[in-house]
UniProtKB/TrEMBL annotation:
One of its GO terms (molecular function) is hydrolase activity, acting on glycosyl bonds. GO terms for biological process: extracellular matrix organization. Keywords: Signal. It comes from Lates calcarifer. GO terms for cellular component: extracellular matrix; extracellular space; membrane. The lineage of its organism: Eukaryota, Metazoa, Chordata, Craniata, Vertebrata. Belongs to the glycosyl hydrolase 79 family. This is Heparanase 2 (inactive). Residues 1-29 form the signal peptide.
Length: 588
């Protein structure tokens, strides 16, 4: 888990940005290295047609193994939990052995606790408050609440990581409660009018226990809408929270507010860039006054999608030297009414939607804070809970894996997935504690993909564009050094991941430095008869399932002999490790 480090600036030098990125692929020119091309050419046959694999192969693929184009954070793929889990009750189940195991599988990572309801959180330094627990009039619900209290008492007796196995009836009652609560939460989200949420000391203990046991570093969002009559930030709740956390020696980083550019539409009160900078100065002063956090990392202001008001906010905040700030948005731009069937996930124009937004954000960052790290926050395949049998299926993985690849190519330092777990259909883990397809994509990514990003060289990927028509690639290829945490591969190995959006099989021939190397294939396909709507994934033909609450399935590769062409089935995602290539860029 990352430790706090001395700050060179008044705030953390890292900076989160909520943006999605453009696919960057280096396409070989017509002079793709004549010396390399000659190695593949065969004598022309009678009639002018040349036999051999050049007729059958879609692309030639090579990778620059001399130097990386980007070096990312080791926690590149990170997680997010929404404060709504306090209200719908799921926070009480974060001690589940299965949930902790699933989160640990994606470590090392950051865990951001934040979202729309960040600015409606109020801290109350009491362990258990009956009025906040709200047992309700129903007899069974009362018994359910009593079970929660008994579970808490049992957890308190444990030392170290506090883990629990909850009875099925308890989980069933919780699912019923969450379904009812979500109707209220969804109404708030659609109306953009939110009620306050109390986070008690007990709630914070459970949240930190989850993060700590799973090997995640907690980033806690603070309420920036708690205002004094003069519109200055009211710090009373925050100071109480800081003192409690310091007393427990919780290693936490901090964030102030969520999308301050949207405050006027939410509460009818705007916070301009000057006020925002003053709020951050006040928060830094608070952190320095609490000895345990005087060097803690600080993030924000987590502005929304880079439209005019967000850009103006960031510009102004930069002018007054606000150096630790972030941008935020779901990649719900994929599903803002334009995606209502699985086939829509295959449309490359949707995958490439945010090119303009990237340009706007990077211009602001490079103008005011060149060299600062940029984060991509609040990523999820849909807004307002998602769509059943759509945003929780294999098809949504095309967006997720493509976003990881695009973000890495653009140098995004960290990507935060919203949300790891909760009620709804946009998460990595569902409310039955079953991993959804995006979880398995994330797990394979974590196991195989390292932080060093490599330039990909391809030939034959693009066809000649027609006048006025933009050609977007349906075969998307990214390359990294293989993760150093994976001890099955020696340093110097390379991982390539490929997304085939075509409705037909495509072939890729490894060329140049990759030629005649042994390859380990990790081909992820939908399992069952539901096709792209499948909620289960198979790896090289084997269904991926948890063996029990604490055991992952073995991720067995399929070995492709040296020189063999990679055949990508239609509408699939594959990871390929080039073994023993001893790439210079990946040995360091």
């Amino acid at each position: 888990m990352p430790k706090s480090s001395p700050c060179v600036f008044p705030w953390s030098s890292l900076l989160l940005a909520s943006l999605a990125t453009l696919v960057v692929q280096s396409v070989l020119s017509s002079s793709y290295s004549s010396s390399s091309s000659s190695a593949y050419q065969r004598p022309a046959a009678a009639g002018g047609k040349r036999p051999g694999f050049m007729e059958r192969t879609l692309v030639l693929l090579d990778v620059n193994t001399r130097s990386p184009i980007r070096v990312l954070n080791d926690n590149f793929l990170s997680l997010q939990l929404d404060p709504s889990i306090i209200k719908d009750g799921w926070l009480d189940f974060l001690s589940s052995k299965r949930l902790v195991t699933l989160a640990r599988g994606l470590s090392p990572a950051f865990l951001r606790f934040g979202g729309k309801r960040t600015d409606f959180l109020q801290f109350n330094n009491q362990k258990n408050l009956a009025k906040f627990r709200g047992p309700g009039p129903d007899y069974y619900l009362k018994n359910y609440e009593d079970d929660i209290v008994r579970s808490d008492i049992a957890l308190d007796k444990q030392k170290g990581c506090k883990l629990a196995s909850h009875p099925d009836i308890m989980l069933e009652l919780q699912r019923e409660k969450a379904a009812t609560t979500q109707l209220v939460l969804l109404k708030e989200q659609l109306s953009n009018i939110y009620s306050n949420i109390t986070i008690t000391a007990r709630s914070l203990d459970k949240l930190y226990n989850f993060a700590d046991c799973a090997g995640l570093h907690l980033i806690l969002g603070l309420n920036a809408l708690h205002r004094n009559p003069d519109n200055s930030w009211n710090t009373s709740s925050t100071l109480s929270l800081l003192k409690y956390s310091a007393g427990k020696k919780y290693n936490i980083s901090w964030e102030l507010g969520n999308e301050p550019n949207a405050y006027r539409s939410m509460v009818g009160r705007a916070v301009n860039s000057t006020q925002l900078a003053q709020d951050y100065t006040k928060l830094r002063t608070l952190l320095q006054s609490v000895r345990y956090y005087h060097r803690a990392h600080l993030y924000g202001p987590n502005a929304g999608r880079p439209r005019k008001n967000a850009i103006l906010l960031l510009d102004g905040a930069q002018i007054v030297s606000l150096t630790a700030f972030s941008l935020h948005s779901h990649y719900s731009y994929y599903m803002d009414g334009r995606v209502n069937k699985v086939e829509d996930f295959l449309k490359t124009r949707l995958l490439d939607t945010l090119t303009e937004q990237i340009t706007k954000v990077t211009k602001v960052v490079n103008t005011h804070t060149p060299g600062k790290k940029v984060w991509l926050g609040g990523l999820g395949p849909a807004w307002a809970g998602g769509i059943s049998n759509l945003s929780d299926t294999y098809a949504a993985g095309f967006l997720w894996v493509n976003t990881l690849g695009m973000a890495a190519m653009q140098g995004i330092d960290v990507v935060l997935r919203h949300s790891f777990f909760d009620y709804g259909y946009t998460h990595l883990v569902d409310q039955h504690f079953h991993p959804l397809p995006d979880y398995w994509f994330s797990l394979v990514f974590k196991r195989l993909v390292g932080p060093r990003v490599l330039a990909v060289r391809v030939a034959g990927l693009q066809r000649k564009p027609q006048p006025g028509r933009v050609i977007r690639d349906k075969l998307r290829i990214y390359a990294h050094c293989t993760s150093y945490y994976n001890h099955n591969y020696v340093r110097g190995s390379i991982t390539i991941y490929i997304i085939n959006l075509h409705r037909s099989r495509k072939k890729i021939k490894l060329a140049g430095t990759l030629r005649n190397k042994t390859v380990h294939q990790y081909l992820l396909q939908p399992y069952g008869t539901d096709g792209l709507r499948a909620k289960h994934v198979q790896l090289n033909g084997e269904k991926l399932l948890m063996s029990d609450n604490e055991t992952f399935p073995e991720l067995k590769p399929k070995t492709l002999r040296a020189g063999r062409t990679i055949a990508m089935p239609p509408m699939t995602i594959g990871f390929y490790v080039i073994k023993n290539i001893n790439a210079y860029v990946c040995r360091r």
